[in-house]
Every structure is written in C-alpha cells, then in structure tokens.
Amino acid sequence: xxxxxxxxxxxxxxxxxxxxxxxxxxxxxxxxxxxxxxxxxxxxxxxxxxxxxxxxxxxxxxxxxxxxxxxxxxxxxxxxxxxxxxxxxxxxxxxxxxxxxxxxxxxxxxxxxxxxxxxxxxxxxxxxxxxxxxxxxxxxxxxxxxxxxxxxxxx
Length: 155
Hints:
The protein is mainly alpha-helical. Helix content is 37%, strand content 6%. The chain contains six helices and two strands; from the N terminus they run ααααααββ. The longest helix has 14 residues, at 111-124.
C-alpha cells in the first residue's frame, strides 16, 4: 500500500508534510510507512479516501482495478438520484391533465406458463464451480489479515 500512497502523493503534487496535513495522517507515521517500519492500516486508507474520494478503495487497499473511479457527467434528462446525492429530486411525472390518453392493446399471455418457462430457463443455466481463493478479515483497530487458500492441482 505504501507504493500506492506514494503514487497518490506524486499525482497530487504533494510532499509528505502537505499530504500529512491534507489527510490527517501524522508525518512520522507516513515516514514509517514509507520506510517499512509500519504498515498502513484501514484507518489510514479511510483518511486518504476521505481526502481523495475519487480513489477506488479496492485499488488503495489491494492494488486491484483502476486507481480512480470513472465519473461520467450525467445528462440532465438521464439523471437519476442516488442514495448519497444531494441534488433535489423533482417530480417530472406529467399530471393527469397533461398525460396523453392512449389505449394500448394487451397481448393474450398465459402468465403462469411464462413464469414456469423463465424458472426452467434459470434452472438450466450452469455456473462454473467457484472456489474460495482469498479471505480478508478487517479488525476494529484498522488492520487486516489476508488468508489465501492452498491451491491443489486436480490431476
């Protein structure tokens, strides 16, 4: 994780003191992380993510995936509220007076037969067997352990 922290510092143009001030991680702690005397903890990752919310936590913690969350600017007509969005939601449903009157013919569908067909199709989908490769356990002191499964050859 220290290499990823260093990459964040370099990308943001900060030295250790500026990064320490921006994230709230003590300068001495950063120095110890970079020197290999201590490991970065989950609390350090949270502090960095709070300051740099566009970073992917998977990348920061484990080096997996892209460094940044891809943000696409939503079009105003395609925008949908999310759980954390502070943008006010406006009701765009047309009123009864504005709604066009349409008569849409309903097809004659045996719904029970359709449901059974879908259930049968779902049963026929075969998933490859999945094996546990790694388990990560996070502790309340901000540290974590990684347990990897022993890989045995089948043959």
